[in-house]
Amino acid sequence: MAEKFKYHRILLKLGGEALAPPSGVGIDPGRAEDVAQIIKAVVAEGLQIAVVIGAGNLWRGRTGIERGMDRTTADHMGMLGTVINAIALQDALERDEVATRMQTAIEMKDVAEPYIRRRAVRHLEKGRVIILGAGTGNPYFTTDTAGALRAIEIDANILIKATKVDGVYDADPVISPEAKKFKRLTYIDAINLRLKVIDSTALSLCMDNDMPILVMDLWGENSLIRAVKGEPVGTLVSQ
């Protein structure tokens, strides 16, 4: 079945908002089940998928920093928030009979395996979804950068950043209806345009290691399946 797909090993980067109710705050179990269904459809095609998830629905370090909180403390809180989201997504996947393994960059043996690259790759080869929590395990790095780093480490074919927007625009399409959507961008263009879809550290890391990035709407009809087939979905950032 996998022969009809362009990408066979995918790193899916999700924002914490993917699991949130309409308010954007907290975890909606129903929303987690919807995400699990989307991932399950990819796994059912014989493809390998790893997931890095953020924590914007639970904690934004910027809020604490603006009130005088130490940056490292704020970032560690965010890392722990990603673990909470990872547990929720793992539960939704396993209730849908999808085999998963959860690994964290900060060791917490009673909750998940520590992140070990070789073990992560082995899980993928056995058809398991791996959910990677706690970012890179280091402050000052976003979960976008964690997604880029893990995609490179596990030798993924592509980093897919799934959002609520169907690609990258030259302005906020919600504010500016005339905003132009890009079908393709080079890494340099994306960096120079200072697009806020993915952070510059992640972009630079992908550029240096020739890791293509696809920014797409997770909630479009069959959008993830269409993306891994190589159909023109979202915005592709590459060399």
Q: Brief description of this entry?
A:
The protein is an alpha/beta fold and 239 residues long. The chain is built from 8 helices and 11 strands. It has a single domain, classed as Acetylglutamate kinase-like (Carbamate kinase, 3-Layer(aba) Sandwich).
CATH architecture: 3-Layer(aba) Sandwich
Quickly name the level 1 CATH class: Alpha Beta
Q: Rough shape? A: globular
User: In this structure, how is the largest beta sheet organized?
Assistant: 9 strands, mixed
Structural class based on helices, strands and sheet pairing:
alpha/beta
> How many independent structural domains?
1
Number of helices: 8
Notes on the protein architecture:
The protein is an alpha/beta fold and 239 residues long. It has one domain (2-238): 3-Layer(aba) Sandwich (Carbamate kinase). Helix content is 36%, strand content 19%. It has 8 helices and 11 strands. The chain has helices spanning 29-43, 61-66, 71-95, 117-125, 143-153, 187-192, 200-208, 223-228, and strands at residues 9-14, 48-53, 100-104, 113-114, 129-133, 158-163, 168-169, 181-182, 184-186, 213-217, 235-238. The longest helix has 25 residues, at 71-95. The two termini are 29 Å apart. The model has no long low-confidence stretch (mean pLDDT 94).
